[in-house]
Amino acid sequence: MKKLLNSATRFLTISLALILLLTVCIFSFLAFFMSGKSSETISAVGTTYMTGMGEKVTQHFATTIELRLSQVDSLVGSIPPDSASASSLRAELARNAKARDFVALAYYSPTGEFDMIYGEKPVLADPDSFLASMNNGDKKVAVASIATGQKDVLLGVSAEYLMSDGTLSTALVASLPADYIADTLSLYSENSLVYSHIIRRDGSFVIRSGDAFRENYFNRIQALFEEQGESGEQYIRELESAMDKGEDYSALLVFGSERRHLQCNKLPYSEWYLVTVLPYGELDQAVSDLSHAWLYLVFLGCAVVLLALLLVFWQYFRLLREQMAELEKARKEAVHANKAKSEFLSNMSHDIRTPMNAIVGMTAIATANIDDKQQVQNCLKKITLSSRHLLGLINDVLDMSKIESGKLTLNMDQVSLREVMDSIVSIAQPQVRSKHQQFDVFIHDISTENVCCDSVRLNQVLLNILGNALKFTPDGGLIQVSLYEEESPQGEDYVRTHIIVKDNGIGMTPEIKEKIFESFVREDSARVRRTEGSGLGMAITKYIVDTMGGTIDVESEQGKGSEFHVTLDLQRAETLEEEMILPEWNILVVDDDQQLCESTTSSLKSIGVKADWALNAEKALAMLDQRAKARDNYHIILLDWKLPDMDGIAAAKEIRSRFGDETPIMLISAYDWSEIEAEAKDAGITGFISKPLFRSTLFYGLKPFVNSGDTHEELQEVKCADFTGRRVLLAEDNDLNWEIANELLSDLGMELDWAENGRICVDKFEASPVGFYDAVLMDLRMPVMTGYEATEAIRSLDRPDKDIPIIAMTADAFSEDIKKCLDAGMNAHVAKPIDVREVARLLEKFINERLYRT
Amino acid sequence: MTLQECYAAMGGNYDDALGRLRSERLVQKFVLKFLADGSYDLLCRSLEEKNYEEAFRAAHTIKGVCQNLSIDKLQASSSRLCESLRNGYSPEADALAEEVRTDYGQTVAAIEAFQKESAG
After folding, report:
1. Nearest-neighbour CA in chain A from B117: distance (Å)
2. pTM of the model
C-alpha cells in the first residue's frame, strides 16, 4: 500500500513537473512568436500605409500644382498679350496674380532672363531644364532662391508677352513660397509621425522638413547610417535605380535600434521626388508597450494556469491519499472480519464439540450403567442440558446466516406488551432463582399495551439482552427491566417504546462495548470463558432492532454493570380494548419504588379505582391504622414482596394480626412465587399479581374480587373465565384426545361438539344456524381434510359468521407452523398438550373481541 | 400398583398429567382408555403397507395423545418417528419405529398391569 502510494506520488510529481514545463514553454513561445508577429504586422501596416500616403501626397502635389498652373494659365487666358498696352497688361497681370496669392510674377525670356512684373527676382537652381521645358511650350514647376535666402516655387506657363526690352517672352512665371507647398502638402506636422521631403534626382533637397539640415538627402541617409557605424550605400543605390526607372520605391531602413520606413514617389510637372519617411520609433514604442502588456498578460495567465494546475494536482493528490487510506481501512476491516469469522468458526467448532462430547460421553456412561437408575437420570439430565445448549448455538448460527443472506424478515402481528413482559419475566424467573439475583420490573407511562410487532423477534431481542444480563451478573446481583412509552415522532399512530435492561454485573471493557454488536465477536477472556453462547446474540439482536427501525444503545463499565436501552417506534394496534372498569374501591399500594407507586396508582385510577401508596411497611401500617380508626378500610392492599424495612410476608402477618383477615392482600412480585406460595398463604396473603403491573394486569388481577364479598378466592381460578352457554366445535381425529379436551373444557361451562376430521368440521359448521358456534378448535393433522384446509374452507363460506374464531391445536410448535396457521386464516395457535388456561384465555379473547366488533 | 407406579413404569410424568387433568379419576380414566386407542394399530398397518403419509399422521396422533397424558417416554420416541416421517420415508424411520414399538409395549404392559390390579 505504501509502495503504491509512493509510486502514485512519484507519477503525480513527475507529470506535474512536465506539465508545468510544457505550459511555461508554450506560453513563452506564444509570447515571443506574437511579439515577432506584431512587429512584422507593424512593418506590413507601415508599408501599406506609406505607399498609400506617398501616392496621396503625390496626388495632392499634382492637384495643387495643376491648380496653380491653371491659375497662371487662366491669367494668360484672361489677359491675352495683345489686349492692351504693355504697361496696362503688366498692371492687370500683377493685380490678378496678387489676388491669387502669388508672391512674384515675371515674364520669362527665351534666353532665361526674368522680367519681373512684381516681387523679387528668383535665381533658378536648375535653369536649363526649366528653360528647355518653357521653350518647348510645356508647363513646368521649378524651385528658385530669392534674395532673402528663402526658396520659392516657380510655376511656368508658355505665353508670348511683350517684355520691357521689347522682345517677346517665352513664358509667364508665377512664384509661390516653398513653405506654401510644404504646408499645403502637410509635408511635416508636429502631430504626425510622418514627414516628407521633396528632393531632386541627385538627392539635393527641394523642400526640406523635419530635423533635416543637410543639403542632400543621400548624404543624410549616409550620415544616419554612419552614426551607427553602418553603411546606407545599398539603400541609396536602390533608391537611385528606382528614380532612374521612374518607379516608386519603398524600403525599410534599419540602423542601430531604429527603423524607418522610406517611400519615394516621382512628382509630376517637375524633376522632383517625394520622399516620405515614417520613423518607427514611437510606433515601435507603442508596439513594444503592447507586447510588454501582452507578455505580462501571458505570464500572468501562465501563472494562473500553473496555480490552478497545482491546486488541482494537490487536491487530486489529497483525494488519492484519502482513497488509499479508505482502501487500507476497508482492507483491514475485511481482513479483520475474515479473521473474526475464522476465529468464530474455530471457537464455534470448539463450542459445539464441548456439548457434543458431553452428550456422547454421557450417553456412553448411561449405557454402561443402564441399570443404575440414579446414574442414568443424572446422565440424561446432563445430556438434556448439553443438547439445549447445542440447539441454542445452532439456532444462533442459523439466524445469523439468515441475517447475512438478508432473509430475515419480520412477521408483523398484534402483540400485547403485557404478554411479552409476562413471558420474559417467567422465563427469567428460574435463572433468577437459581442465582439468587435481585430482579425487578418497572413499567410506567404505558399508553398502549397492544402494538404491532413481530412478537417472536421482539421476544428474542428481550431474551437475548435479559439473558446476557442474567448470565453476566454474579449471584446476588441486581437486574432491572424497565418499560415505558412516550409520544413517537412518527405520529399519533405510533408509540415510542423504551425497554431498558440494567444490571450490576461484570460489565464490559470499552473495547468490547464497541464491538458488542459486531458479528462473530465474543469477549474471550478467562472470566467469561465459562459462560455459554455463540457470541452472535447481540449481533442478531442489533440486526432485529435495526430491522424494526429502532435503536439499541449500551452503557457499560467494567465491574460496575451494563445497561441496554432499546427504543422502538411501534404502531398502535387497532384493538377494541375491553372496557376495564372496577368498582370505586380504595386500594393501598405498598412498594419501595416511588415511580412504581405513582404509575400503579395512576393505572388504577384509569380503571376507576382510588389508590394511595406507601413506600415502606411502617408507613403502610400507619395509613391502615388511620383508616381503621375512620372506619373506612381499604378494600384491597397491594404489597410488594421486598420492602426496605420488612419483607411483604412479614408485613402481611403484621397486617393480619393488627387488622384482621377482612382485607385481601395481593403480593406483587417479579419473582416466581411458587416456592413461597405456602408460606405466603400462611401469612395471610390472598393472592399474587405478577409484575410488571400493566393496566390489564391490575384489572384481571383484581377483577375476581368484584362480585365476591368473600376475600379468600381460590388462587388458581383467578384467570378462568366463564363459558357457560358457549358452543365450541372441536375438530380432532383421535377420540382419546377429544375426550380429554371435552372433559377439561366442559368444566368451564362450554358445550363442545366433536368433528372427527376437517371435512366433518366444515359440514357441521355449514349445517349449523348462523351464530350457533362461538369458536372452533382445530387439530391440524387429520385424515380426509387437514385443519389448514378446513379453515380455508370455513373462511370461504358464504356466511356472516365465517369469521368465527378458529384456534389451532397441534403437537408441532415450530414458528413456521404457527405462521402457516395464521396464513390459513386461523386466529391463534396453542401447542399440545392441551393447556386449559391458555385455551380459555384465547377463547375468551377472540370471542369477546368478536362480540365487541358486532 | 398405584397410578403413580404405573406412570413410573411407563416412563411418564404423573404430576404433570394430574396438573393438566386436575383429578386422579380423570387421569385414570384416560390412561385406561389409551389401551383402546387405535392409532398404534394404524401406525403398524401403515408402516407395513409403506403408507408413510398415514404412518406420519398416526405417529403424530400418538405423540399428541402422549402429550396430553404426559406419557413422556412414548411421546419422545413417537415424536422422533414422526419427525423422521414428516417428509416421507427416511432410513432411520425403521429403527425409530422399533423404538416406538418397544415403548408402546412398555406403556401398554404398565397400564394393563395397573388395570389388572385396580380391577382385582
Report:
1. 23
2. 0.41
